[in-house]
Amino acid sequence: xxxxxxxxxxxxxxxxxxxxxxxxxxxxxxxxxxxxxxxxxxxxxxxxxxxxxxxxxxxxxxxxxxxxxxxxxxxxxxxxxxxxxxxxxxxxxxxxxxxxxxxxxxxxxxxxxxxxxxxxxxxxxxxxxxxxxxxxxxxxxxxxxxxxxxxxxxxxxxxxxxxxxxxxxxxxxxxxxxxxxxxxxxxxxxxxxxxxxxxxxxxxxxxxxxxxxxxxxxxxxxxxxxxxxxxxxxxxxxxxxxxxxxxxxxxxxxxxxxxxxxxxxxxxxxxxxxxxxxxxxxxxxxxxxxxxxxxxxxxxxxxxxxxxxxxxxxxxxxxxxxxxxxxxxxxxxxxxxxxxxxxxxxxxxxxxxxxxxxxxxxxxxxxxxxxxxxxxxxxxxxxxxxxxxxxxxxxxxxxxxxxxxxxxxxxxxxxxxxxxxxxxxxxxxxxxxxxxxx
Length: 438
Ligand SMILES: C[S@@+](CC[C@H](N)C(=O)[O-])C[C@H]1O[C@@H](n2cnc3c(N)ncnc32)[C@H](O)[C@@H]1O
Fold this sequence. Notes:
single chain; alpha/beta; 2 domains; 8-stranded mixed sheet; 6-stranded mixed sheet; 11 helices
């Protein structure tokens, strides 16, 4: 069965842009990006439910679905609010692809989600063969080349389609491709099994717990916010880390969440409504420092005076190349990749001014390029002499890469989630922890 070894099938020139320095690691990195992390992780909102009570809910769901073959649910000692679900034990063999089944074609982002255990939502379906019936079993393929015409009725023959698993049809063609102004929504195909063996449970997120990647959970633990502190989340939407910060603070103190996207802030507000410590604003964080006497409003409204915060999370806008599995990369031009370090440096400069002496700044990205990770750290240490690196613990990832201007004694304090053996099998991610000198 064909499976890609790089998310850049259509644009190989971009590959060399990804890791400019560490080129020896490029091929394994690209192959790793295409593969699915095997473990599913939920972060429990311990302000609402105990971890044991949520574990029981998960175990019941898994038992209903898989009976005797239910995968194990387990926790990790240094991330007590997280629960992990193991992959299924049985392997998916080539022989289990039934050529008699009708086919559904999905786009690559829908394909990536289903490999991580999602069902197929209507907008992700590109094609369904004619006469496919409700409840019928179907084979599901992803179109890597982006050549399948939306709404096709015939079987899509292409060397660039990959088999992902089998599912049961819940919506018919006329519902999916109705040409109306209101596109279809809801689950179109319920997955029965997939080649990654990640359990197909769909997303069980609720106010009690959130489906969240392991490094995002580690990132907030590295920040280690304490009850009663003032914390700034500079790039907060969709607010997943903001909620975690408030939970670790026991919802006591002040968490200010900024994001410059109106629509993203609008959609995160209802989720953050029930935390009394959080206030959220649509605001451009490159202008978060008050100039002169500009600030006259309450202390939770931007812009802010220098040294206003005990801890700051800069979960920066980035190229997002740590996403896994990445069946095809949405970035097609090197100039897009090159645009991120500039905004990251501008946001970082504001963060340093807003941090009080002795305060903690965590810089993170969900990408793998050195330019947006270690190079930003090297630049920051060179530019801001009142900052020093701290060990980014708890550690579930590997160390950062050394660079000519970032020696190994410093890079080992960083945390990089990647294909290295030292790293958990999860998405690509980067975390650096700084303290401002007292
Ligand atoms: C990686 S996402 C943040 C994810 C979020 N921290 C979470 O865990 O849910 C980066 C965010 O930065 C926001 N952003 C980009 N430029 C910004 C700016 N100048 N000021 C504030 N937010 C910005 C984007 O809208 C996006 O929501």
